[in-house]
Design brief:
507 residues; alpha+beta; Heat Shock Protein 90; five-stranded mixed β-sheet; 13 helices; 15% strand; histidine kinase
């Protein structure tokens, strides 16, 4: 039977499906989760940064390369110019041009231009570049133009010779320039990959140790705790750090410990509910028998028996009613109130009789309300509310360390008044007061008890019954010793049809 129940809870696919679901919740390896994403993100970001750096760097490389050609041509031009008026032989001119990688060298000096060496002079040039003062954007644009469209163009380049007024001009093909730029670009690309991989690796290990491993530890603890939340060994144990993850770990530990306490309490409540149900079944039968026997007391002629018989019958009837409602209370909530107009004074008298408060008890019970004051409520449920509060007051007054009132007496005062459509009921005592621990969990079952060994169910039930009436119940701070509760119960709203029917009946 147990195996059948477990099989009913399996998802489609049986145990294999459960394992597959668990596998989907696990991180997908070192490089498939956050670490892998972080690694690739670092590589991409560094490559983008290198691309942004590449454009000005390749432009600067191009200017340096052209400047070197101009300097070489300028050195040759100065030598050739020093041989004047002797003309340099054609063979020597050709060797000079080949050494400088140019087609023609022109020297600009004192406002004149002089062709010093030339061979296979082209009829036209495709592009002209002045290296005197080149703006950054222009240098980048020219570099991209050479990389994309260059390689077979004739260009004319000119610029000054060092810091003199002499200038030099050369004509050359841009094939060698473009090849040098391609080699430079390849080297920059390879270097960028190495830098990005190296940086990403460092970031990977650093972030993996600082961030990813603690996160995996947290998620692993969550998964392990969810599989067996009642096992104390599955509670997360942090490293005591001060960063955000360490704080999150401590909060997770606190939450898991609190959840374990709650689960244990719920388990105990379930066991308690089962035990109460069994006891309630037998108790109801016993009370039913007592009810049958007590009915015969009405026929006894003894005056004392006749005086106490109605109260005894009401008490047994209430006990039977309570046992009947135990199971419904444990399954859902209290039954809806069966409201009607009841006299509050008579109800408080029943509470007094039930608690056996008389002159011999040493407790004074005071009722401060008009005998005709009526409240629109369920008589049995309101009786339980006031009875719970007064019973707590009696236990507090009879307990150790109870503080007497200003005149030295033990007193319980139940006062009430009507304001419009709301009846306010106050239950006050001269006991030791409510402890601070009980105030924090005032209306919580099994946690709001003011005395040792108490369950706190009385106040929890009272609050539920008052809320079912649309009212409120609260602990009132008072300057003197003791405990004071205030209950406010509003009347039911009257529909127009009910009002008209009542008006007709009164006529």
């Amino acid at each position: 039977m147990q195996a059948h129940d477990q099989g009913d809870n399996l998802p489609p696919g049986g145990a294999a499906g459960t394992e597959a679901d668990k596998a989907e919740q696990r991180p997908s390896g070192k490089f498939g989760g956050l670490t892998g994403k972080l690694l690739w993100l670092t590589v991409v970001c560094i490559m983008l940064a290198e691309v942004l750096i590449f454009f000005p760097s390749v432009a600067a490389m191009r200017l340096r390369w052209l400047d070197e050609r101009l300097n070489a041509a300028a050195a040759a031009a100065i030598v050739i110019d020093g041989l004047q008026p002797v003309e340099l032989p054609r063979a020597l001119q050709k060797e000079t041009l080949e050494a400088t990688g140019t087609k023609a060298i022109v020297l600009r000096k004192e406002g004149t231009s002089r062709l010093l060496a030339t061979t296979d002079m082209p009829t036209s040039v495709d592009e002209q570049y002045d290296l005197t003062n080149v703006p950054a954007l222009t240098a980048i644009s020219d570099a991209l133009d050479t990389l994309i469209f260059g390689g077979n163009r004739m260009i004319r380049v000119y610029g000054p010779v060092q810091d003199t007024n002499t200038g030099v001009e050369v004509v050359m093909k841009d094939k060698h320039l473009r090849n040098a730029m391609l080699v430079y670009s390849r080297n920059v690309f390879l270097l960028s990959i190495l830098i990005s991989l190296f940086t990403a690796t460092l970031v990977f290990f650093a972030i993996n140790r600082i961030l990813i491993r603690p996160i995996r530890k947290l998620t692993g603890s969550m998964q392990q705790f969810s599989s067996d939340p009642e096992n104390p060994q599955n509670v997360f144990v942090g490293d005591g750090g001060r960063d955000e993850l360490a704080v999150a770990g401590r909060h997770l530990t606190s939450m898991q410990m609190e959840l374990q306490k709650t689960l244990k309490q719920q388990k105990n409540l379930a066991a308690l509910g089962l035990a109460v149900s069994k006891i309630n079944h037998d108790m109801r039968n016993i009370l039913a028998s007592a009810q049958l026997m007590s009915d015969r007391l009405v026929d006894v002629d003894d005056p004392m028996v006749k005086a106490f018989a109605p109260k005894l019958l009401r008490t047994i009837d209430r006990a039977v009613g309570y046992t009947t409602e135990v199971l419904s209370y444990g399954q859902a909530s209290e039954a809806a109130p069966r409201r009607r107009r009841i006299r509050l004074f008579d109800l408080t008298q029943d509470v007094k009789d039930m608690l056996a408060i008389d002159a011999q008890s040493g407790i004074e019970f005071i009722e401060q309300m008009g005998p005709e004051l009526e409240v629109d409520a369920d008589s049995e449920q309101l009786f339980r509310v006031i009875h719970n509060l007064c019973r707590n007051a009696v236990q507090a007054l009879n307990g150790q360390g109870a503080i007497r009132g200003p005149d030295g007496g033990k007193r319980i005062t139940v006062s009430a008044q009507r304001v419009g459509s709301v009846v306010s009921i106050i239950v006050d005592d001269t006991g030791p007061g409510m402890p601070q621990k009980a105030r924090q969990n005032l209306f919580a079952a099994f946690r709001g008890s003011a005395r040792s060994g108490g369950t706190g169910l009385g106040l929890a039930i009272a609050r539920e019954l008052v809320l079912a009436h649309g009212g409120t119940i609260a602990l009132v701070e008072k300057p003197s010793v003791g405990t004071q509760f205030r209950i406010e119960i509003p009347d039911r709203p009257v529909s127009l049809d009910d009002y008209r029917s009542r008006a007709l009946q009164e006529k």
